């Protein structure tokens, strides 16, 4: 059967089990859009903005453990979606990132939407290729799919000129196996074991896939046997938590928190995580957060088989030791006006079984980990790259990846408005997402950072830039405008009642929780 380039591309995607495409397309991508009907095995999901598209692909990949495709319109569309691709890069999420471009013969005319796509996509430090002919599109697509899944996962960008898409003579290509995780040498495991046996204080910092059950159990065994301090990376792509799993603290966001957590440590062991650095530079403070004089030892890089390495290390130093598991327990339901403390207790008390939490609460969510430690098992997806605006979009993609699981989006008000049109996609696809927006009418985290960098904070102009109350944001009205039922809670009792109803009723819901700032 004769195919055009777009049909061959999509057939190659489907044959490699890439069966979801998040998109906000334009003229250059119309043959791809038309080909979606020719290959019914692929699901096209529309986002009203590119940040929704890229964030949803990130959330999908984190939960599905396989890539979705994106379809973006030229360099401008890529630029609009870049912030959430940055977060995906930091999360090592596999994404096949397809960028439509002008026809090859049209580019020399410098049309208004012409731009240097390679320059923009190059910032993602992933794989990139421009497909130059219809005959090659199947092979190029297969290479992109494999590259996206090369350990530990990355954004693979395939640039698709319009004439390559509409040209005849496309052929699907066979699936190409990705590069698997590298095996950690046994002598590396033994050398790290000697560090743990040294008797000197040790911190074990882990990340990536080690934040799931097998890794958590191995880390807990190591900590129990050796006294090492275990910490998960500050912003895990996906962390499994809850009753029956080890409850391991994450490394703090603030440099002062990390200094306290690592106080006295003489050795830092890295297992799939980067060496700790300050999130930002601060006058007179160190950027490197490894304690002075401490040595850093790498058990496994992010591209290594970190879980097997941790299990081998646990067998070496903790052969007969069992992990410490969190008991099943929930906080009591609070009463009274909502506070920065008690809203998290409501979530912990009522979190449904097997939930996925997309956490972009920022300052409002500092107590969520404590409140949910003994809740039923769940996954937490965090803001890996620090570019706010991912929470609603990531929740959307996670819900498509796991339609039988409840998705809970815990969302700060300032972050929510970045990609709030995610709600429209949730309504259109009838996704089981419950969004709780913590409305404290402020960029509270920026108020804190203004003080921490030593800038003058008393002036009215500065203060006004962190104030979201003039005018107030009405998330109930916004949600309803996008087709999502919404309510507002001012008390713990109201939040509990609304949350119960939302998570037991099919489809998306939003709750605006009126919470005062913590800071």
From TrEMBL:
<dbReference type="InterPro" id="IPR012001">
    <property type="entry name" value="Thiamin_PyroP_enz_TPP-bd_dom"/>
</dbReference>
<dbReference type="GO" id="GO:0003984">
    <property type="term" value="F:acetolactate synthase activity"/>
</dbReference>
<keyword id="KW-0786">Thiamine pyrophosphate</keyword>
<dbReference type="GO" id="GO:0030976">
    <property type="term" value="F:thiamine pyrophosphate binding"/>
</dbReference>
<dbReference type="InterPro" id="IPR011766">
    <property type="entry name" value="TPP_enzyme_TPP-bd"/>
</dbReference>
<dbReference type="InterPro" id="IPR029061">
    <property type="entry name" value="THDP-binding"/>
</dbReference>
<keyword id="KW-0436">Ligase</keyword>
<protein>
    <submittedName>
        <fullName>Thiamine pyrophosphate-dependent enzyme, possible carboligase or decarboxylase</fullName>
    </submittedName>
</protein>
<dbReference type="GO" id="GO:0016874">
    <property type="term" value="F:ligase activity"/>
</dbReference>
<dbReference type="GO" id="GO:0000287">
    <property type="term" value="F:magnesium ion binding"/>
</dbReference>
<feature type="domain" description="Thiamine pyrophosphate enzyme N-terminal TPP-binding">
    <location>
        <begin position="3"/>
        <end position="108"/>
    </location>
</feature>
<dbReference type="InterPro" id="IPR045229">
    <property type="entry name" value="TPP_enz"/>
</dbReference>
<dbReference type="GO" id="GO:0050660">
    <property type="term" value="F:flavin adenine dinucleotide binding"/>
</dbReference>
<feature type="domain" description="Thiamine pyrophosphate enzyme TPP-binding">
    <location>
        <begin position="376"/>
        <end position="512"/>
    </location>
</feature>
<dbReference type="Pfam" id="PF02775">
    <property type="entry name" value="TPP_enzyme_C"/>
</dbReference>
<comment type="similarity">
    <text>Belongs to the TPP enzyme family.</text>
</comment>
<dbReference type="Pfam" id="PF02776">
    <property type="entry name" value="TPP_enzyme_N"/>
</dbReference>
